[in-house]
Amino acid sequence: MSDSKLLGLGVGAVGLYILYPTICEWFSEMNSLSLLTNRKVEDEIEDYERHTTGLVNAGNFCYINSDIQALASLPATFGYLTKFGYLCPADGAAMAPVSSSLFYFVRELHRPVTKKRTISPEPLITAIEQTYKSRMSRRQHDAHELLHLLLETLQKEFVALTQKSRSNHDLEAVLDFPYEGTLVDEIICGNCHTHTEKASKYLILSVAVPSQSKTTLADLLKENTQPEYINDYACITCRVRNVMASENPRFKELQEQLADATLPLPADLEEQLPKMYSPVFKTQRFDSEPQILCIHLSRSIYTGSFAARNSCKVEFPLELSLPGKKARYRLYAMIRHSGTHQTGHYECSRRKNTGFWRKINWSSLFESTSTSGEVEASEEPQEPGPEESTNTDLPFPHKSKPSTSLSTEPVTAAQQPSSAPREEPARPRKQSSKQWWAISDNEVRETTSRAVQSLQSGAYLLFYQRV
Ligand SMILES: [Zn+2]
Q1: One Gene Ontology cellular component annotation (predicted)?
Q2: Do 175 and 198 reside in the same domain of the chain?
């Protein structure tokens, strides 16, 4: 939870443990699920549903690992990055290293595995370091601070793509940046009764947790929209009226300029106006809603030079709406912090959502590189290999698909070409009663939504997606 900068001179060698499986290997493993002959399909599915991929912690990387697991858990991240990849020029991975490395993790973390598997977060670290031409410090950092950096970088890569593709008129209609929402501050002056509105964008909705034993997220969000009385607001209208009524000769020139409607307002008007404060009512309201709503429960308490962690229990729902808005959101991931303000550990709980991920026909996304059928089927999931180059082409989807037909829905089995390598199990799948993963770096276990919701005093980052 430290405020130190993420990027800077880091020290110490990091033992890398990178797995960079090819797409072919993945197809081989997917095929192997249906090729097993000595076990019932239900048993295979149960195995498949009982394991997922964790991330190596080669230092103090739990904050990176948790952010990766949470972002990759969101179907809308997959939908956005898939479209992004289609619309990206051939040098997409070089132009958008963070987007493409995040796509790599979306793919790898949802790869069907039947036993423990671990990969390295290094491709994302490398992408960030390449982008900012700086080495990330290997010390402990704040998962919220990194999340903000990641989302800002994704947004920069999105803007770069839209600027590069101005000739593509369909681009804006096809591709929305899913992580940005808008808040509007509404201010009514108690003196002049002027009503002003000011919009501000957010990538993460930061909510201050109160110093009390427990509260609910719904109450915290509602409090954000309650009218707030401020008695020292510098209302421009009041200040202009004050100057216009003044008989002080030093305002003569400004008065003439303001009185002449044909003249533009001085660029430094605010500086020229004498200080004056008015009482106002300020109300904040939610305006445009992001497709992915990241909520930060701010738990820092500052008393003088001392910073502490606020362990207030915050009850958070599996589904929510923002106050005054209709859209429904569903919780897909939660990052929990345990420890003190200065040090501690991050863990991510994420929804399994296997119904969604299993329907994706990854072969159609990567058809240019698919050589399935030439690869020997293997039952063994891939274990981390020795250090390999991270300069391998990062796996953005194949570009030949028509961009206008893209949707955030996965390509389903029914839409697969007849040559698709996947086969759906013939019998209904047995579902585990535990529909969430609890992930602490490379340690993964199944858990329930109720158990996730019980982690109220450590809940730190919540990831909701519009239903
Ligand atoms: Zn006023």
Answers
A1: cytosol
A2: no
